[in-house]
Amino acid sequence: MTAAVEPKDNYLTAGFSLKSWLTTTDHKRIGVLYLLSITFFFLVGGLAAVLFRLELLTPPGDLVSADSYNKLFTLHGIVMVFLFLIPSVPAAFGNFLVPLMIGAKDLAFPKLNLASWYVFVLGGLFALWALLTGGVDTGWTFYTPYSSTYSNTYVSLMAIGIFIAGFSSIFTGLNFIVTIHKMRAPGLTWFRLPLFIWAHYATSLIIVLGTPVLAVAILLVGVERLFGIGIFNPAIGGDPLLFQHLFWFYSHPAVYIMILPSMGVVSEIVACFSRKRIFGYKFVAIASLAIAVYGFLVWGHHMFVSSQSVYAGLIFSFLSFFVAVPSAVKVFNWTATLYKGSIAFDTPMLYAFGFIGLFTIGGLTGLFLATLGLDVHVHDTYFVIAHFHYIMVGGAIMGYLGALHFWWPKMTGRMYTEGWSKFSALIIFIGFNLTFFPQFILGYLGMPRRYHAYSPEFQVYNVLSTAGASILGAGYVIPIIYLLWSLFRGKPAGPNPWGAKGLEWEKTSSPPPVHNFAEIPTVTEEAYNYSGTNEQG
């Protein structure tokens, strides 16, 4: 294919002004606005993590009080889950890339897309208001009846923020579903779609079906808190397990909202840097939909130690083992794709390798938690914290950073410094494992989570974990520096610096023009058709 011609005005420079950005309906600019917003929330949540890891450096916990510690881990959890992890890849990179990948000039509903960003920012501002005016101490799960009745912190204000931010996700999910169904380029059949699109389609289904359930649960917490109606508090006729069912019916599928888009990112990177079509492409595509469906059937494994029926526990245990199958299909097929591939160890590929390794550990330890007897032993311990972070931080954030480094040349037209970016990827991988692997041991030995003080025999593992967090934090700061540097001093990327396949690489410039393509492209080949292409462009 011929290289795309560089336009005079791209989406970054055309009509450049603050007003033009704040009123834009260009999906690419909205993706950049999301990228800036969620990166800000990532820094806020990361700062809270630094503070409570310093608190856990010594057993007595002298740095902050118990109440302040409760507010710190709540701040970290709420901001990272609802304001970073859930919107990170879908809202930022999905917005930027979905129309480019399917040959469309924009999303189906451009004004709704802009509204979704404003709704997200409004929800985030309510959350920050709650945190700055006194904080919230319920944990990110808002467990009742403490959150609905007994907590004297700003729960209602935080609940409003999360309720509002949920509508941002719903708007984005609806936009993606309609766009993928109705606006694909001629010749782009379902089984020619990039796996990134399949992942976002499956994610959008979960968002649209699951987010209203969380909204109802959070709304009911506010109703009980404000009006004293007995919904969750048993003292006034409520049932606290009702909240857990509502919350986890959304929040376990929400794990896949966070991880499925990163799986799509890894598929794109592995195909590009091994110069091969993804092995078992159709199985990987269908696995995304299978994860979306089965994710709604396993919420009860979070409630093994509640009073739910032991027979229900057995069923949820079986289903929790079964839901691992489509995830394993992806991992095995990525590995098979690498076999005899022409592998290039560029920075995006390092993040893809990191994702595969860390997600595999997270997935295998999830099977421990799906086992009834073992879950009783490690429930609410640091084992759960470690497992969750191997999936979310080791998986979702590795995917987020992989996407950032893979599509940065497309988004900005500039290349970053490869030496520093590889060093940063290595630091993040080492820092992450040093932070969270000791927590598996802590949890197995019995250290409960959410305590600001602990027995002295646990200190050595906490010191390792805090040291790892320091390394991890440095690894996250380094990309901010060299990516900002690349905006001004990075060498021009050209339309396709990786020699990648896909409409966003082969049919448009870097950065893309306002309307993406001079004319709507026609697709005539399968996805990832790297046959005969062994060198990068």
Indicate the overall shape: globular
The biggest sheet amounts to: none
Tell me the domain tally.
1
Determine the CATH superfamily: Cytochrome c oxidase-like, subunit I domain
- Overall number of strands: 0
Count, helices: 18
Order of helices and strands: HHHHHHHHHHHHHHHHHH
What structural class do helix, strand and pairing data support? mainly alpha
CATH class: Mainly Alpha
The gyration radius over C-alpha positions equals: 23 Å
Detail the topology: elements first, then pairings.
Layout: H1 18-22, H2 27-55, H3 66-85, H4 88-102, H5 110-132, H6 146-150, H7 155-182, H8 195-227, H9 240-274, H10 281-294, H11 310-322, H12 324-338, H13 347-370, H14 372-378, H15 382-412, H16 418-445, H17 459-489, H18 503-506
What does this structure look like?
The protein has 537 residues and is mainly α. The chain has one domain: Up-down Bundle (Cytochrome C Oxidase, Chain A), CATH 1.20.210.10. It is 67% helix and 0% strand.
The gist of it:
The protein is mainly α.
Provide keyphrases for this structure.
537 residues, Cytochrome C Oxidase, Chain A, mainly alpha, globular
